[in-house]
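Section 4.2 – Deliverable D4.2 (structural model, holo form)

The reporting period included a commitment to supply a predicted holo structure for the target in complex with zinc ion. Inputs used:
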Amino acid sequence: MAKITKILTDRGILTMKINPINSTNQYRQNDVSFNGGLPRKIVCFGPPASGKGTQTSRLSNELGLPHIDMGSLLRAVISSGSEEGQLAKSFIEKGQLVPTKLIARIIENTLASAKCKDGYILDGFPRNLEQASLLDKINQRIEAGKKAIFQAINFEVSPKLLLERIVNRRSCPECGEIYNLKFKVPKSENECDICHVHLKQRADDTAEIAQARFRTYDEQTAPLIDYYRQQGTLSSIDANGSIEEVWHNLTKAIKR
Ligand SMILES: [Zn+2]
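Output (structure tokens):
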């Protein structure tokens, strides 16, 4: 009991998270929000079409932690007109990649802000070993010797399934609803269930372009698996199943 009292004094947020009836102090089985009172930092990575975006948004709601999606963050910074935003915009307008140093500055400002004081779920960063090492340094600076829980989640999906998800993806040009000719079949052939217009395939959802994206992922991002394994922070989850199955695997992997 003394341990629980201490946790409550430290952060004052765990009152609802502990099963008061169970005298063995076990935490509720489906409760993924318990964090021992420490900030919880989660990075998620996985190949294109791994379903990572859907799952991380849901995890963000479940844990009450901000979902920092690199693409959205960059767009927000650019539209804010800040110095970093203007700089990032200048590279994009020239058709160049935003340099890692600038990305890291934007990430550090965000992760050091008040909204991330209890932690964050990071999606789309790091994408390579250089960025992973930068993130470690950023976290060290922000934590300044204080403890935090860090976890890297790797979404594992069979390449064959990823390809099927991509080449069979279709969307409605009217309402934007996404279908899949294998996994989420429209009621009438190639027609939106809601708007009854012809479904479209995105120009880059071809086998060739998908294979090229997988190669980039394997070269740049897959080495993060070894990096975080050696660090002892890696959790790989089976992301081959349905949204609910993957969600189950994800919540099981989240440290309590
Ligand atoms: Zn539609």
